[in-house]
Amino acid sequence: MHILILGGDGYLGWPTAMYFSNRGYDVTVVDNYFRRNSCTELDVGMLYPVPTLIERAKLWHAKTGYEIKVIIGDLTDPELMRSLFDGRITYNWALDETFTGIPETVIHYAEQPSAPYSLMSYKYANITLSNNLLVTNNLMFAIRDIAPDTHIIKLGTMGEYGTPNIDIEEGWLDIEHKGRKDRFLFPRQASSLYHTTKIMDTDLLWFGVRMWNLKVTDLMQGPVYGIDTDESTDDQRLRTIFNYDEIFGTVVNRFITQAVIGYPLTVYGEGGQTRGYLNIKDTLQCVHRSTENPAKSGELRIFNQIMETFSVMQLAEMTQRVGSKLGFDVQIKRIENPRKEAEKHYYNPTYQGLRDIGVEPHYLTEEVMEGLFRVVDLYEDNIRKDIIFRGIKW
Ligand code: USQ
């Protein structure tokens, strides 16, 4: 099977590429180096240097004998997007430059993924809106016009639902109103502009499903943590990009990095913000199971992609416990919340669908967190205090 990964250089994209390649799929990745370029532009660094996508594909080939084809380019350009399906493609790196053919599955990660980035200023809001919506729209039309049988797996986010005072269903809600019943998308109410673009993506693809019978799986993912996946453990050059700064770092990865250098853990506000979390290894399992069990033609299938829930304070306390056990001095410091979000709220999402298609969760145990501490600690000298908190506010 041929898999196309849009956004193949990012935190999730590269591990996904290796995961599928290792299982015998033909993998093509596309990326415009948005994450790397933004890290340079905004001076936020990474935990360790990461070889370019082409270098990584070569390292992967040397290690496994498998080829991951690479295209460096901007998918807001509709012609680049269409070339991935109609064979006009030019590879930046491939052993065999012949077109692999129309992919059976396309995994869409090619988005600006940070809530703080989207609210730094009107300029970054525009970049977020234009990138995320144009890439999704270009993909939708390319599939409609050229590859209607291709299954789209799009990464959504649990943040689309916000924190409603009712249970969160998997994407849909049955409503009875004045004696009549219907089924609608579960209400969405995002608390950042980035999350708002994800709602708009869903609406775009839902339109494509209704009009043109596209096959779409939407994975509503919570914040991801972790570094290594099975494919990177014995070669650190294959490790994914790891950010711990305020813009691109997610909370668990940030807390562990802070603990390693004795920076008091930055709990925003009361710390009662509860989210669904998952290990990066489970993101890979979820996209794999979704690929093997595709949505049907004319179906927008939605899964809540989380494995367990924690409040920010619970995560901070766990980081403190594990860090202390390992000999780090870990303090917790509540700081004024730079974000506008509920700090104490009801949170009860359903997340059964991915288990039903065979995903077996990895939980955030103290042992798992210890493993993360050990990897982050290897790079202690690279950790920059000045990028941990700048206070991007909205
Ligand atoms: N938080 C802190 N201290 C920090 C960083 C974060 O208290 O130093 C809090 C935030 O205020 C928030 C929670 O931790 O309440 C999670 O924050 P996060 O930065 O880990 O995650 P978020 O901004 O929501 O975004 C991340 C990814 C995004 C993905 C999303 C899933 O960057 O791409 O879509 O997680 S979700 O949160 O379910 O929408």
Number of domains: 1
What is the CATH architecture annotation? 3-Layer(aba) Sandwich
Q: Which CATH first-tier class would you pick?
A: Alpha Beta
Low-confidence stretches: none
Helix-strand string: EHEHHEHEHHEEEHEEHEEHEEHEHH
Q: For this structure, what is the CATH homologous superfamily?
A: NAD(P)-binding Rossmann-like Domain
On the 0 to 100 scale, the average pLDDT is 97
Structural class: alpha/beta
Topology:
Blueprint: E1 2-6, H1 13-22, E2 26-31, H2 34-42, H3 53-64, E3 68-72, H4 78-86, E4 105-108, H5 115-118, H6 122-146, E5 151-157, E6 172-177, E7 180-185, H7 193-212, E8 215-221, E9 224-225, H8 251-260, E10 265-268, E11 274-279, H9 280-292, E12 299-305, E13 308-311, H10 312-325, E14 332-335, H11 353-356, H12 366-378
Parallel strand pairs: 1-2, 1-4, 2-3, 4-5, 5-8, 8-12, 9-11, 10-14
Antiparallel strand pairs: 6-7, 11-13
Helix pairs in contact: 1-9, 4-6, 6-7, 8-10, 8-12, 10-12
Sulfoquinovose-uridine-C1,5'-diphosphate is lined by residues 113-115, 157-159, 195, 221-223, 250-251, 254, 266-268, 273, 275, 312, 339, 341.
Structure explained in plain terms:
The chain has 394 residues and is an alpha/beta fold. The protein has a single domain, classed as Rossmann fold (3-Layer(aba) Sandwich), CATH 3.40.50. 36% of the residues lie in helices and 19% in strands. The chain is built from 12 helices and 14 strands. It has helices spanning 13-22, 34-42, 53-64, 78-86, 115-118, 122-146, 193-212, 251-260, 280-292, 312-325, 353-356, 366-378; strands spanning 2-6, 26-31, 68-72, 105-108, 151-157, 172-177, 180-185, 215-221, 224-225, 265-268, 274-279, 299-305, 308-311, 332-335. The strands form 4 sheets. A 7-stranded parallel sheet has the order 3-2-1-4-5-8-12, sandwiched between helices. Helix 8 packs across helix 12. The longest helix has 25 residues, at 122-146. The termini are far apart. The model has no long low-confidence stretch (mean pLDDT 97). Sulfoquinovose-uridine-C1,5'-diphosphate binds at residues 113-115, 157-159, 195, 221-223, 250-251, 254, 266-268, 273, 275, 312, 339, 341.
